[in-house]
Amino acid sequence: MLDEGVLLVDRSRRVIRVNRRLASLFGLDRDALAGIDIDRFMRRYLPACVADDLAARITAAPPDWQDIADLTCTISTSGGREHELLISGNRIEDEPFWGMRIVRFREITGEMRARQELLACTEKYRTVFDSLDAGFSIIEMIFDADGRPADYRFIETNRAFERLTGMHDVAGKTMRELAPGHEEHWFEIFGAVARTGEARRFVQSAKFLTARWYEIYAFPIGGPGSNRVAVLFNDINDRRQAEDELRESEEKCRQVFASMGAGFAVLEAVSGDAGEPVDFVVLDVDPAYESIMGSKRDQVVGRRITEVAPGIGRAWVERCAESLGTGRPVRFEGYNPVLERWYGFYAGPMPGKGRCALIFTDITERKQAEEALSESEEKFRALVEHSLDGTLILDPAGTILFANHTAGRLVEIEDLDGAIGRRNVMEFIAPASKADAIKDFEQVARGIEAYVARYQVLTVTQEERWVESIGRSILFNGAPSILISLRDITERYRAEEALRESEEKYRTLFDSASDVILIHDIEGQLLDANRVATECLGYARDELLTMKITGIVTSEFAALVPERIREIVESGHMVFETADVTREGRCIPTEVSARLISYQGRPAVLSIARDITERKHAEEAVRQSEERFRLLTENASDIVIVLDQGGRIRYASPSVKAVGGYAPDDLIGRNVLELTHPDDAPLVINALRAATAHPEEQIILEVRIRHASGDWLYLDVLGANLMGEPAVRGFLVNARDITDRKRAEEALVRRADDLIRASREVEVARDEANMYLDIMTHDIRNANNVSSMYADLLLDLAKGDLKVYAEKLHASIDRSTEILRNVATIRRAAEEPGNLVPVDLDAVIQSEISNFPDVTIRYRDAHIEVLGDGLLSTVFTNLIGNAIKFGGPGVEIDVRVEEEDGGVLVSVEDTGPGIPDEVKGKLFTRFERGMAGGSGQGLGLFIVRTQVERYGGEVRVEDRMPGRPEDGAAFRFTLKKAA
Question: Angle at CA 91, nearest 5°, toward 32 and 67?
Fold first, then answer.
């Protein structure tokens, strides 16, 4: 039986043949239609607009005849049911039907309803999609020829995506097109999700795009090979900043407490008759107590403090009793005449009745310094007031709290007393320098100990000047403040500017600079020196020009000169420390700012050196804390290194020997880029630059480092900018060897690439096979239509054995058509995306029952929506068709629908001969013909099983009457109920 209605129109525009399917579709008598004029048929049974068009095309004479291609319309049968039809037609070129027209009508009611339901479901999805507060997008990854993630294209986004990212109209565009500087790690993470099919949750910042932090959930969609990833994200920038601030605060507290060298004791009160504390027993002390007080732990634990500290113990008792009485901490100082030392104490209550914590530090040196400071206060003020450098003290907002006369003269303030507390330093900073000044003040407020900067300032009379500023955080009158030392460098700045314009001006300004300036070639031969250089080093200028740079530095730094020159030539600029040696042999620590220049047509290095003797003395004060830092790192199993601002290794932990094969001392002074794989060097450079620009953020990356044997190691690196920490003063880097893991990952990637290539080859072969199948299906279907018309004529004309043969011919054509329909169904099932939507189960069943008007089919309406798609009707087509085919004359069919365990159970039962038990287990196998023997192709029930499983259900066959297979079969399957 053809699945299409077909009519044949002769050359005189009369309908000469109508097949059974068309008669059933319109509810008409086939014989009544024979000989009817095609115009009359069309206008009676089809809508007017379609009927006129079809009639005109069918009756047109050659060469005006046109094929009819996929017209659609809606008809109503005599029973009041509406059907959607797809109409097509063509002219027959074979004898004896040459010149006749064949018109095909295919019912697409189920497909149209499924399409409308899918559209409604899509609209619901879009509404929910756009109402999400979280950002959501669907992207498609783009991989390069080597399988590496190169970019991704936006497929779809919601409104929250635009609000959270600031990007609009991104559909169809790639990320590199929208944001060329977007960080590489985004492509790597989303590429990994697409390749592996594993979802990822992570927190990451989009520095280039919004400079904000996001919490992201990325998961694959579309199945293997689709390369599509769904991304759901929320803005957590405020939460991240709060976490960073809390972590920074805790770290500062930890470092401050660790660097204080404070002693700690836990005390418990000894009560008198009235219940008041009369003494305290020592319960525990920390190791610092032993070094500060000179007593071992076992000598003090369990004893009273008046015994262990006879010179100051009574003061402890009084203050600790006061803290317990008020419930608040108490600070006090005391002098121990026995040890002849001063101590600062902090006493505070602890959990537990009568317990008190006592924290103390040795403040003897501070007390002595305070006494000395008190004695020299007037001398200090006289020194500050008559200093050649300006001195300012500012509050955090920039208000002037103190200014010496030099600072007043610098900006031409005559009434210094009137400016104190009333004028802000930002009034005197030129607009071009205000942003830098604000940034520097904010750094001091965040805890940066000191900074050196250069600003352009404006005097009261609006004269422009340049100053060099050194700022640091201090306490002034008990409040956090900023101490700024100013030096007027207007002349030096102008000299530097003029140096680039004129050689004659260059010499005048060169010699008037207040710092040592030297020029040498890339071999180290001195080419020029300014006046300050000759005065500081004690050499005549002509004598200096006969020397090399290695001759005026200590032997320690002389060995570093060639390497430093090479780095300056490569990078163009470098700041470093060295030690100059005068003619008399005196050593002067200096800080050098070196830059590559062109001098008399040759490359040379311009070095400006400043005496940093005083700063060196200050750095010596933190040496002890650096020792403690070294002890920690030397006992770490991972590699710990410290880099200076130029990337040179200042410290390497002993673990570099076990991991990398290097002796730690051999790495000191080497640049980390020397050990880095050339392909990873840009990552390291960018990470150091990012850490310099944003010291509050950590460095997280993977790099390859050369092993001493020459092999490459993969390291997982975590770094932080601790330039402002006295114990480190550099980039602290922790690295872990992940070589074995990376090699395993690379092997997996190679395997994945092989599978992708194989998949693409299979896909090409499948497309080619589908093309041939499309051609065959189309041509065979047309041939079957014509053959069916011949068979109908034979059935009407033949008698006897010839009529039997004609019936068999017609049955064979029907089986051929059924094969095409089954193949098309299997292809659609394989190619459909699998998106299930709510489907009206009653409409599907009613539509299929109408295709079998000559069979008794009982069904009670069940208005239930299930999850399915446009192929759900093929399940009923095959089950009802099988029941009719194998049930014999007079077969009766029952279709039942029941709700069961949150799902839907559907039964198709027949009164046919039933199915033996030994056949039931293999009925749903592809090409298994079961009871049919050679009468079928064995695909119908296989299609039923495939479709039901696509919908998340199961199918089985049972006896209609349990235990009595001869009384008919019952096919039962389950579907999921739509929400």
Answer: 105
Contact 607, 520 (CB under 8 A): yes
**pLDDT per residue as tens digits for the range 61-108:** 665 666 777 778 888 776 667 778 888 888 777 776 777 888 888 888
The full DSSP string for 247-303 is: HHHHHHHHHHHHHHT-EEEEEEEEE-TTS-EEEEEEEEE-HHHHHHH---HHHHTTS
Q: Residue 1's closest CA among 17, 21, 29?
A: 21
The token pair that represents 616 in the structure block:
């060196």
How far separated are the first and last CA of the chain, in Å rounded? Answer: 37
Q: 348-372 pLDDT, tens per residue?
A: 888 878 888 888 888 888 777 677 6
Rg (CA), the chain: 46
CA 302, CA 295: separation in Å to the nearest integer?
13
- The span from the CA of 950 to the CA of 940, in Å, is 15
Does the pLDDT at position 1 exceed 60? no
Lookup result for tokens 């199948």? 773
Largest CA distance in the chain: 140
CB half-sphere exposure, 464, CA atoms < 13 A:
8
Higher pLDDT, 618 or 305: 305
Say what the pLDDT of residue 823 is: 66
Q: How confident is the model at residue 334 (pLDDT cuts 50, 70, 90)?
A: confident
Only one residue has tokens 């990822």, namely 200
Backbone angles phi, psi at 288, to 5 degrees: -65, -30
**CA 81 to each of CA 42, 445, 775, 843, 900: distance values in angstroms, whole numbers, following the listed order:** 19, 81, 35, 10, 30
Q: Are 74 and 94 in contact (CB under 8 A)?
A: no
Give the pLDDT confidence score for residue 253 in this predicted structure. Answer: 44
Q: How far is residue 794's CA from residue 803's CA, in Å, rounded to a whole number?
A: 7
Q: Are 529 and 617 in contact (CB under 8 A)?
A: no
The pLDDT assigned to 256 comes to: 45
210: nearest Cα among 233, 193, 244:
233
Q: Say what angle helices 739-797 and 801-831 make with each other, to 10 degrees.
A: 160
Nearest to 416 by CA among 396, 390, 398, 434: 390
Residue 348 near residue 357 (C-beta atoms within 8 A): yes
Q: What is the dihedral of CA 826, 828, 831, 834, to 10 degrees?
A: -100
**Tokens coding 470:** 């050194």
Q: 778 to each of 207, 772, 870, how far by Cα in Å?
A: 57, 10, 21
The CA–CA distances, whole Å, from 182 to 4, 211, 216, 692, 825 equal: 56, 11, 16, 19, 46
For residue 865, CA distances in Å to 120, 517, 757, 829 come to: 14, 88, 42, 20
Burial 183-193 (b: 16+ CB within 10 A, else e): beebbebbbbb
- Contacts (Cβ under 8 Å, ≥6 apart) of 416: 403, 405, 408
Phi, psi for 410 (deg, rounded to 5): -60, -40
Distance CA 511, CA 546 (A): 19
Mean pLDDT value of segment 538-567: 91
**Rounded to 10 degrees, what is the CA torsion of 270, 276, 278, 279?**
40
**Hey, how many other C-beta atoms are within 10 angstroms of the C-beta on 585?**
7
The residue to which tokens 């320098």 are assigned: 433
pLDDT tens for residues 664-706? 888 899 998 988 999 999 989 998 888 888 888 888 889 999 9
Per-residue H/E/C for 821-861: HHHHHHHHHHHCCCCCEEEEHHHHHHHHHCCCCCCEEEECC
Q: Rounded mean pLDDT of 114-138? A: 66
pLDDT tens, residue by residue, 619-641:
776 666 666 666 666 666 688 88
- Reported pTM: 0.31
Distances (CA, A) of 651 to 578, 590, 630, 656, 671: 18, 21, 9, 11, 12
- Cβ distance 218 to 200 under 8 Å? yes
